[in-house]
């Protein structure tokens, strides 16, 4: 069994944070782009919202304590609401409560998935250490 390398741990955290920042930048850019300039995947809009925010929430909260996960969740819920409101002033865009709810649900599911994955990983690591 290999020893835990704290440097690799910090590097992984930095990579996750950088990826999360990139994804957040894409979410913001697509949210404030005029409708004609925004690409469409063909999937329902609410599914796009849910998956985008779930991915970002997972990256932001994996390995974090519960209090920090809740803070990130609240931040993403507020951000998604602010972006929906901002769309009121963007040509061809409209704000919808259902989009905000889908984004918020995605943030919650992503944070929950990160917490579950973190718990499972910790249990697996402990059981391997006991062997």
Topology:
Layout: H1 6-32, H2 45-61, H3 66-86, H4 97-130
Transmembrane segments: 45-63, 70-88, 100-122
Keywords: Membrane, Transmembrane, Transmembrane helix
Protein name: VanZ-like domain-containing protein
Features:
about 130 residues, elongated, 4 helices, single chain, disordered N terminus, mainly alpha
Your description of this structure?
This protein is mainly alpha-helical and 131 residues long. It has one domain. 76% of the residues lie in helices and 0% in strands. The chain has helices spanning 6-32, 45-61, 66-86, 97-130. It is elongated and about 60 Å long. 23% of the residues are buried. Mean pLDDT is 88; it is low at 1-8.
Radius of gyration: 17 Å
What general form does the structure show?
elongated
What level of helicity do the residues show?
A: over 70%
Task: Output the structural class.
Answer: mainly alpha
Determine the strand fraction and express it as a percent band. under 5%
**Low-confidence runs:** 1-8
Number of strands: 0
Task: Summarize the helix and strand pattern as letters.
Answer: HHHH
Short description:
The protein has one domain (6-130).
